[in-house]
Amino acid sequence: MARISAAVLSKYLLSGELSCRGCLGARRVSFSSESASYSARQTRHFTARATPITGPAPVPALAFQSSNPSPVPLRQQLKAQARALKSSGEKRKKNADNQTVPGWELTVGIEIHAQLNTARKLFSPAAASFNDAPNTHVALFDVALPGSQPSFQSDALIPAVRAALALDCTVQPVSRFDRKHYFHWDQPAGYQITQYYEPFATDGRIVLYPRDGIAPQDGEAIEVGIKQVQMEQDTAKTTAQPGGVQWLDFNRVGMPLIEVITLPQIHYPATAAALVRKVQMLLNSVDACVSGMEAGGLRADINVSVRRSDDTTGPLGTRTEIKNLSSFKAVEDAIIAERDRQIALLESGGVVVGETRGWSLGGTETRRLRGKEGEVDYRYMPDPDLGPVVIDDQLVRHLKDWMGVLPDAEIDQLIGDYGLSSKDALSLILLDDGARVQYFYNVLDAIEARLGSNADHESLATSSGRSHALLVANWCLHELGKLTEVSADLGMTPEGECRVPSTDLAAILYHLHSRTITAKVAKELLWSVFRGEIATGAVTAVVEANGLWFKELPDEEYAALADQVIEGEEKVLGEFLRFQDGKSKAYPHGKLMFLVGRMLRSGPEQMMDPVSAERVMRARIAEVYIPALQAKK
Amino acid sequence: MSARTGLLRGLCLHHVSCSAKQLQQQQQQQQRRLLNHFISRDPKPAVNGQDAPSPPHFTLAVKDNIATTGATASSTTTCASPFLTSYRSPFEATIVTQLRARGAVVVGKTNLDEFGMGSHSVHSASGPVAQGPDNDQGQGQQVRASGDYGGEARSAGGSSGGSAVAVACGEADVALGTDTGGSVRLPAAYTGVVGFKPSYGMLSRHGVVPYANSLDTVGFLARSVGTIADLLVGAGGLWAEHDPKDPTSLSPAARARCASGREGYRSSLTAVLKGVRFGIPLEYNIEELDPRIRDVWSASAEALQQLGARIVPVSLPSTRHALAAYYVIAPAEASSNLAKYDGIRYGTREDHGGSAGGESESDVADGGVLYAASRGRGFGDEVKRRILLGSYTLSSEAMDNYFIKAQAVRRLVRRDFDRVFALANPLHEPEAFDLSDLPDSVAMENKFGPTEVDFLLCPTAPTLAPRLADVTAQQQSPVDSYMNDVFTVPASLAGLPTISIPVQVAPEAAESPGRETGPGAAGLQLIGQFWDDARLLAVAGAVARALSEPT
């Protein structure tokens, strides 16, 4: 069990709060804690203290009711669900099998909030910060001191416009800021400045492909329209303390966000999750966004409605909104749960009420937050202190020209030019917030520089010449991935460098590609570089010093080993004869590799190449053993 | 002398002294206490012959919704609201800093209607402001017999009533006010001093606690037009100073562009009245206009005509909708601006009888009762009225019928002004006007339309200063009170520079003969085209001189 400090553990147990900025530590944890009754909190406080931390902490039973928004440790919540499912005797359907309900059509629209990558807040010159000491970056306007005024930081436009372009939006030459009014302690002015009436970007679209993870029902591609993208302020960060005390960190208040609003054009839960994932990928790829959903930099609200699929010409069903989803899985799970709730309600003759609902991570159903009658009228009003935002077409064109390649184009390139599978291409792009693919290019450049003397550029682009690229991709994904399974992370920088310098990996792979070291040696070298046992740039020297060069056995010795292995394997050889005689259609490749494997194990490994071993084995069988068997007949 | 006479109402007087001078001082002090025009006051500034600051200093009273800093009593900024009784701003308003640099010595923070909302300076957490019978003690122009002071105390106007009285009493050479819909001009008219509202965007609002941002301006009150003109125009004039902290402060480039079509900014202006065209807006001659004011209005026009000015009747057809539009837009913005006063950081939190914290928490979940209770107790009635009004007009069901319509009216009001002024509005493209929209009463200058004018001449308020008793005893409904703004609001909606200068009204027109003579002064308002502030001040100075001379 992980060692967790008592302070962290007590925060987690008592107020459901995680110290890290993860999806569980999402904002508005305050909401659940504020509505938990004081006495319940006291009880838990007491039991947590009285129970050894290693034992299962008893939690009041009421906390398991999903309608109760009390903060319950996730593990306990999941356990309780598993128990409930077990006792009810039904199995939870896998999401992949739960994309549709016969007779019903689901419609989903999504609003995504993302923190813009800027140095300053949206309306004050205070620094935008993430993990600095609380309340250290606060300007007069951020806390709405009487008489203070907003000062629009036009720098925010650059990531905002980039985001809009990545989402294929039309950037509006003139947009305006409006005030959205509601009372909450995390909002010192009593209103949030947003763009309601005239957003800065409208009418965009996102195309989703199967590789993005859309539902199979959506076919080869689906386009989802973006209604608008608007700039707005973030709120203060609330940290719930025991005893109904809330701590506020105004570092976050006024930080620039964009809100991306899609049209209600999504009909499958998986596609909704894919869309949110893709928006994150697009925003990352144009450097518009600070961090992803896992780090709390992205949050989604979803609007869900259902109607009978035999009448899809009429209006959409009444929709409900589910707020503040902080993981891709939560998006998909919440949609499925809400869809099923609405259908069950309608099928039993009920009516769906327009309301705002919540979702707790790992839950099985959404819960009502507030109904229509409790709905806040935001009383949107143009902000009388702020002038219009005028975005010059030249700026938009400039940003468009310098935006670089968008992920979809890059994935196509990786597949088309380097022969990667679409799954590998997507993984490469998504890993380390886009830094992994940069690392891939760095390694590729370095290895091509070494290969350059032997092969001109054109031959590198041909299918035989690009085998090194596939090799690099495989190592960047899979071998590098194995390193992190065991110990610390790679320390990948946005520039595409990590604890394994790209030039060193290129050196290893160059030797591997040119068959001067074996794969086994290459893997050991990688580990040594990762552990820092080999100094940067010293890969070749280490190979030299330790005599790791691949000195291949002569073919005769391979043949001798082959003979040794085949000894007593007449039954296996019979398969080859059957193929030779046309009695079986396929060459018994599996049998061949079985023999090759035995051959490699029986010889001096560092001097053998599986390719050579296979070649010799195949030749021995064809040239010596088959004729011998045939002769026997 | 005590520093906080304004605050310490009901204070026992010191033991009687035999010195006549002290007695006189005590009487003055008592009177001032009754006037209640200061919320906080600095001790007598230590300025004497020897160490007078250079540049030459002047005394400045600051309306208490304008932030000041410092260790003295006047460093609170209360806005006359229970929410801010002890609020000390960590920063100073740009306008105060600018005036200090020009020799201003702040004498105190003046009383007002809470957050600037009111027309009589009676809606204040520090109690109502009154103007006494002796506020001509300085160079005030009222001549009035002292009467039954307590019962007959008059309204000082609002919301900058304290500032107006401070100037009228001679306790400050200049006072800062804020003018959203007439809050500088109305008190100036009631107390017989000069009140000036500049073009919107000329003076920085940074540090001015907003009431309605799109209308709010910082204004000046003084005993003569020249005092204000000295500060605003000419070399080192405030007109040229852009404040980057105020997003509505005109940029240096915009200032230069606006001033390029105007006189009086680059070189000083010798104002002659000969040939100046004054428009008399027909729509301002309303039924409710006090006959004494109508008389002084027409007498003034005649006097100016005799001095060579041209008097031209003009029509501003949208005027009759302006007041309604103002009372939609201003409360809407106010409801938004005042949302921050919620008992969390300002004011005291309502805890429902001090029960356990857990209970008030559940109140929050029940729909924000925590805020409702704090705000219900923390705001005065007039502010609450406007917050409710504003919240309604912004609600999704009423927005289209109120807020949007009011903005349309606001545009029409501005177009009306643009049509009658000879100068173009530098903030808007010239528009074509349809002559058939004009009433028949407007005479045509030629086939292109009626005469265009330089300034508009009209009363500042429809009545003279009412009795405070009548105002506070709720004999006036809120709507009656709003009616006082009918002549001041149109220029606010259009953002135009406007000045109210005092004129004497006939003393024989007393309302209850034999008992009281009524206020002796009314305000006459001059409205100019946008950014024509320099010429407006020059001409207003000439008009004030001309009207004060016996004909």
TrEMBL record, chain A:
UniProt catalytic activity: L-glutamyl-tRNA(Gln) + L-glutamine + ATP + H2O = L-glutaminyl-tRNA(Gln) + L-glutamate + ADP + phosphate + H(+)
Domain (Asn/Gln amidotransferase): residue spans on this chain: 455-621
Database matches in SUPFAM superfamilies: GatB/YqeY motif, Glutamine synthetase/guanido kinase
ATP-binding recorded as keyword: yes
PROSITE patterns for the chain: GATB
Gene Ontology molecular-function annotations: ATP binding; glutaminyl-tRNA synthase (glutamine-hydrolyzing) activity
Pfam family membership, one: GatB_N
Compartmental location: Mitochondrion
EC number: 6.3.5.-
A Gene Ontology cellular-component term: mitochondrion
Coiled coil (residue ranges): none
Keyword line: ATP-binding, Ligase, Mitochondrion, Nucleotide-binding, Protein biosynthesis
GO biological process, one term: glutaminyl-tRNAGln biosynthesis via transamidation
PANTHER family cross-referenced by the UniProt entry: GLUTAMYL-TRNA GLN AMIDOTRANSFERASE SUBUNIT B MITOCHONDRIAL AND PROKARYOTIC PET112-RELATED, GLUTAMYL-TRNA(GLN) AMIDOTRANSFERASE SUBUNIT B, MITOCHONDRIAL
Function summary: Allows the formation of correctly charged Gln-tRNA(Gln) through the transamidation of misacylated Glu-tRNA(Gln) in the mitochondria. The reaction takes place in the presence of glutamine and ATP through an activated gamma-phospho-Glu-tRNA(Gln).
Oligomer status and interactors: Subunit of the heterotrimeric GatCAB amidotransferase (AdT) complex, composed of A, B and C subunits.
Annotated family: Belongs to the GatB/GatE family. GatB subfamily.
HAMAP family hit by this protein: GatB (MF_00121)
Entry protein name: Glutamyl-tRNA(Gln) amidotransferase subunit B, mitochondrial
Native species: Lasiosphaeria miniovina
Automatic annotation (TrEMBL), chain B:
Name assigned to this protein: Glutamyl-tRNA(Gln) amidotransferase subunit A, mitochondrial
Cellular component terms per the entry's GO annotation: glutamyl-tRNA(Gln) amidotransferase complex; mitochondrion
Subcellular location: Mitochondrion
Active site (UniProt): K63, S159, S183
Keywords: ATP-binding, Ligase, Mitochondrion, Nucleotide-binding, Protein biosynthesis
Biological processes annotated in GO: glutaminyl-tRNAGln biosynthesis via transamidation; mitochondrial translation
Family: Belongs to the amidase family. GatA subfamily.
Keyword Nucleotide-binding: yes
Documented EC number(s): 6.3.5.7
Keyword Protein biosynthesis tagged: yes
Annotated ranges, domain Amidase: 60-537
Function: Allows the formation of correctly charged Gln-tRNA(Gln) through the transamidation of misacylated Glu-tRNA(Gln) in the mitochondria. The reaction takes place in the presence of glutamine and ATP through an activated gamma-phospho-Glu-tRNA(Gln).
Reaction catalyzed: L-glutamyl-tRNA(Gln) + L-glutamine + ATP + H2O = L-glutaminyl-tRNA(Gln) + L-glutamate + ADP + phosphate + H(+)
Enzyme class, spelled out: ligase
Biased composition (Low complexity): 131-142
Molecular-function GO term, any one: ATP binding
